[in-house]
Amino acid sequence: MPDDLVPADHVITIFGACGDLARRSLLPALWHLGREGLLPGSFRVIGNSLEDLTTDDFRALARRAVEEFSPGDISEDAWSEFSDKLSYTSGQFKPDDAGPVTETIRTAEAELGGSPRRLFYFAVPPSAYSSLTEAIGAGGLKERSRVIYEKPFGSDLDATCKLNAEVHEVLDESQVYRIDHFLGKETVQNILALRFANGMFEPVWDAQHIDHVQIDIPETLGIGTRAGFYETIGAMKDMIVTHLFQVLTFVAMEPPARLAADDLMVEKTKLMSCLQPLGRDDVVRGQYVGYRDEAGVAPDSQTETFFAARLAIDNWRWSGVPFFLRTGKRLAGKQWSVTLAFKQPPRTMFGDPPGDFSYDHLALELAPAEGISLGFLAKRPGPTFSLAPASMNFAYDGSFGSKLIGAYERLIHDALIGDRTLFTSAETLEAAWHALEAITKDPPPVEPYDQGSWGPGKAEALIAPRRWRQPTQP
Ligand code: BG6
């Protein structure tokens, strides 16, 4: 293992340690990092939440989480070595009451010896971020600290600017890790490799050659047991300003000078600043039929479970190229992709192109099948000259045969070694919210759609005369 990948000794504190995110993602990710030899030589993990648990209860919760959400056998020796490092404290961590948690952290540090680093993970509702950050300052824990903030970071332009200012009262920006787990996905990072490590794609990656771009992240799942969270957030804040915008930056930004945090953040912010503010006609908000009957959802809820948008990027590369974004719950399929549709050549000599999606295109398949395909028209074998859709495919598992590292594993490890390349800056987020400000203040009404469909009919109208590329199309 190269030395720079081995983190320094750490005390890792997870706020919200009994919640959904910790159980599904964080605890399994830490366990996996340990199996891969990517955790520090000496470390402690302190879980904190309002639930009244003992350390043994927390270790049992972590074991159940790993068994449920992390495939693979668990060796008892390895588990016991890992779980010995876990402890739990249920004390509040507030600016005027930071003592008990601070004491637990200092005890763990004394056990490790020396001056271990501190990593805090805020897996709690965003409304708690400001107070938790202040408590880090009040507890005298700022030195040697890094803090991971879950998304969404801020709920509109004003709230994001205010939160950034409050965070900066305690922490230096270099200590702030605004996470977006989509950037931890191998397939999303591969967009950078595809664009900038090859000579053949970048020359056609512009308005001269591309007709439009689709970023499509449909989900079949509903809101599960997350009504409390989802009702106040909705699809735009849960997915668009976060995950889809992050994918958008990788697809559309200019080449950074180096693959380093500052250079990427500059390019991402520049791109976000070129987004034209969205108006009511540029978006479709949908709500699946039956959402209002879910436990914890208001009977007259206006929260959107579907969001589609048409974006314009006002810069030299993308002038006149619409970007269509779509995401939603309880849709007909989960095939996440980015499609770059090429401009059509004159095809009079061949007649009308076959198929619904008549563009030759590059499709970046993000999940669940991970790969890249180039869709084009070919001559159908036979005595007549007719065309048929065809494709060339790259599949990750076929080419590398290796398992992909989980997004949370990757990003937690990055934070442990102090690499902010795949995290989001204050400026990028503020620029993103700027583009969404008008529709946040004056959103169009939600349109109902059937579960198992592709969302409200208006989403088809939004992209017309083009069409959404359906997952099954080559
Ligand atoms: C989360 C959203 O950030 O991403 C969820 O809050 C969504 O609503 C999820 O389902 C999708 O990402 P993944 O990688 O967990 O499937």
Feature tags:
474 residues; alpha/beta; Rossmann fold; Dihydrodipicolinate Reductase, domain 2; nine-stranded mixed sheet; six-stranded parallel sheet; 13 helices; 35% helix; binds 6-O-phosphono-beta-D-glucopyranose
Helicity, as a percent range: 25-40%
User: The biggest beta sheet, please?
Assistant: 9 strands, mixed
Main-sheet strand order equals: 14-13-12-11-7-10-9-8-15
Number of strands: 15
Describe the structure.
With 474 residues, the chain is an alpha/beta fold. The protein folds into 2 domains: 3-150, Rossmann fold (3-Layer(aba) Sandwich); 185-402 and 431-463, Dihydrodipicolinate Reductase, domain 2, CATH 3.30.360.10. The chain is 35% helix and 19% strand. It is built from 13 helices and 15 strands. The protein has helices at 20-35, 55-69, 76-83, 99-112, 129-138, 157-170, 186-196, 227-252, 261-273, 396-400, 407-416, 426-441, 458-463, and strands spanning 10-15, 43-48, 86-89, 117-122, 145-149, 176-178, 210-218, 283-288, 306-311, 323-328, 336-342, 361-367, 371-379, 387-395, 447-449. The strands form 2 sheets. Strands 14-13-12-11-7-10-9-8-15 form a 9-stranded mixed beta sheet. Strands 3-2-1-4-5-6 form a 6-stranded parallel beta sheet, sandwiched between helices. The longest helix is centred in the middle third of the chain and has 26 residues, at 227-252. The model has no long low-confidence stretch (mean pLDDT 94). 6-O-phosphono-beta-D-glucopyranose is lined by residues 219, 238.
